[in-house]
């Protein structure tokens, strides 16, 4: 099971990764996360909407109203150019994080033990 605390640090990256292809709304993003992870991670609505507020405040997403699939007006979010730049920077950070952590959990020449 993935720690919610760990994922929370990357929720902005996850949301932006979904928005980079097309605008979406809260439930649609939540459903995409659940589908992509095959149910291994379900984002809490409060976590998701906190991410929207943070991303909007930093000008990484722009909200707009649109009629949703059920005919109801919904708030959709679109990634901005600043958001795309931030997304790429966070992807690089993630790659660096994986590389560093892997130095400690995979066997290599220093004899560090791997996770089991």
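^ Assign residues to that structure.
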């Amino acid at each position: 099971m993935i720690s919610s605390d760990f994922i929370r640090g990357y929720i902005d990256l996850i949301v932006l990764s979904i928005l980079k292809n097309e605008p979406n709304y809260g439930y649609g993003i939540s459903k995409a996360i659940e589908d992509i992870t095959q149910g291994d991670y379900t984002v809490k609505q409060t976590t998701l909407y906190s991410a929207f507020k943070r991303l909007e405040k930093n000008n990484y997403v722009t909200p707009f109203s649109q009629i949703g699939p059920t005919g109801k007006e919904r708030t959709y979010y679109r990634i901005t150019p600043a958001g795309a730049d931030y997304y790429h920077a966070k992807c690089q950070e993630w790659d660096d994080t994986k590389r560093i952590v892997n130095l400690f959990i995979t066997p290599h020449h220093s004899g560090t033990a791997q996770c089991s």
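The chain has five helices and three strands.
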